[in-house]
């Protein structure tokens, strides 16, 4: 949402541009999310669209590729995502999720990428995103995989006051609440069903899980705390902080690939890949 250079986005690039970016060792950021209910007012694509938007904004500032997103994640839990009992939530078992991510990382390695960032948004994916990264790294020591399990920035007291002037509920209860609603209001306000926003809170808030699911640990709406105080201005601030954190990590881990000076940064010499694979093979 700026006048900065357009980011390089994997799904919008040609195979030659992708090959050139990989040969240049450009870092590629993989947004990892879920298809999960987000209250009565937000779409189920929230957990994979928002991290991709953040990665795109980061790609306007420094050299990186916004990689292919993963729209499915591990099972929703009542105290952090509302739970599996909501229609619209489509989840994977842990072994399937880890195998899927491992296959994606293998394919990116085949494309030539050696600097990869796994950028996770969905709380329940924590831990499971590390395992395939660890396995791939062990098999391919020339790869560097950075795992960001929690995309959230540091919420200092000053930032908490700016976003939650009436009190910070804690990140565990920020599902489909002020953070995500504000980000949607800033990036794409038309998707927010503002007339359906209402305060809500779980009957039980505990530091453990129960199965079968205890729905008292979730809410009727699917929002774990009130989204009513959300605003586009808060979304702008949150975007700045999220982008700042992502760029700081990428800058620290890949210091030789820095800030943009112009538009799409895939201006390296283009040529056929050294293998005999066709363009169709590269797209599989």
Task: Map the helices and strands.
Layout: E1 8-9, H1 15-23, E2 28-32, H2 46-59, E3 65-66, H3 78-81, H4 94-111, E4 115-120, H5 130-139, E5 144-148, H6 157-163, H7 178-187, H8 232-253, H9 279-282
Parallel strand pairs: 1-3, 2-3, 2-4, 4-5
Give structural notes:
- It contains 9 helices and 5 strands.
- The chain is α/β, with parallel strands linked by helices and 284 residues long.
- It has a single domain, classed as 3-Layer(aba) Sandwich (Rossmann fold).
- The longest helix has 22 residues, at 232-253.
Structural class: alpha/beta
Helical content band: 25-40%
Major pleated sheet = 5 strands, parallel
Low-confidence stretches: 261-284
Measured between the Cα atoms of the first and last residue, the distance is 32 Å
Brief description of this entry?
With 284 residues, this protein is of the alpha/beta class.
Question: What descriptors fit this protein?
Answer:
single chain; 284 residues; alpha/beta; Rossmann fold; 5-stranded parallel β-sheet; 9 helices; 5 strands; globular; disordered C terminus
């Amino acid at each position: 949402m700026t006048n900065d250079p357009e980011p390089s986005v994997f799904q919008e690039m040609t195979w030659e541009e992708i090959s050139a970016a990989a040969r240049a060792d450009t870092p590629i950021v993989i947004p990892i999310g879920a298809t999960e209910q987000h209250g009565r007012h937000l779409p189920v694509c929230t957990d994979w669209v928002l991290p991709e938007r953040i990665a795109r904004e980061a790609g306007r500032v420094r050299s990186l590729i916004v990689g292919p997103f993963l729209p499915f994640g591990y099972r929703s839990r009542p105290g952090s995502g509302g739970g599996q009992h909501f229609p619209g939530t489509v989840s994977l078992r842990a072994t399937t999720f880890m195998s899927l991510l491992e296959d994606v990382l293998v394919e990116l390695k085949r494309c030539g990428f050696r600097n990869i960032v796994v950028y996770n948004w969905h709380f329940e994916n924590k831990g499971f995103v590390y395992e395939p990264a660890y396995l791939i790294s062990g098999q391919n020591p020339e790869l560097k995989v950075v795992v960001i399990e929690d995309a959230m920035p540091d919420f200092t007291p000053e930032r908490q006051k700016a976003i939650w002037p009436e009190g910070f509920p804690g990140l565990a209860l920020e599902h489909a609440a002020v953070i995500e609603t504000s980000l949607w209001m800033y990036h794409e306000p038309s998707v927010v069903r503002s007339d359906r926003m209402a305060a809500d809170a779980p009957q039980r808030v505990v530091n453990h899980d129960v199965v079968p699911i205890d729905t008292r640990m979730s809410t009727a709406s699917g929002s774990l705390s009130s989204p009513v105080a959300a605003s586009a201005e808060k979304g702008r601030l949150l975007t700045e902080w999220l982008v700042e954190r992502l760029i700081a990590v990428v800058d620290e881990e890949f210091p030789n690939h820095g800030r943009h000076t112009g538009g799409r940064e895939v201006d390296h010499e283009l040529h056929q890949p050294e293998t005999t694979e066709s363009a169709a093979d590269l797209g599989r």
